[in-house]
Amino acid sequence: MPKVCYNNHMTWQEFEEELNTLSQKIDFTPDIIVGIVRGGLVPARLLSKSLKVKDMYCLTVKKVGEERKVMSEIKEDFNNKNILLVEDMLETGRSLKVAEDYLLNKGANVKTVCFYVMSISEIKPDFYLKEVEVLPVFPWE
């Protein structure tokens, strides 16, 4: 697997422009936004504002050995709810897939979104800006 390089520092202005572009691509009306801890938290909050979605939750997914596991239980009833699951970027996509499966098992209708996807990623989200070889460093990092 190639080494991931974080050498492109993004400004807040650049991020806001990317956020606006990504928001316009999302042709889905979520009832709830769920951000994957940690990388998806800031994007989830800003997308919730941009998309005018008030309900937001966080989901922790951790690597345990070679597997990813949901480490935090959400008690909310997600049955038949439209959920937008947010991550900042995908390297392999495994954490996003585990989080998506968790929400689907709770009866939710799930769409996934992130800003950037590495070409090596095993999955692609429903909505994203670009496929990249080098991931940027976001302004909050």
From TrEMBL:
Top-level taxon in the UniProt lineage: Bacteria
Signal peptide coordinates: none
Keyword Transferase in annotation: yes
Pfam families found in the cross-reference section: Pribosyltran (PF00156)
The keyword Transferase is assigned to this record: yes
Ranges where the Phosphoribosyltransferase domain occurs: 12-133
InterPro entries membership: PRTase-like, PRTase_dom
Gene Ontology MF terms: glycosyltransferase activity
Keyword terms of this UniProt record: Glycosyltransferase, Transferase
Name by which UniProt lists this protein: Phosphoribosyltransferase
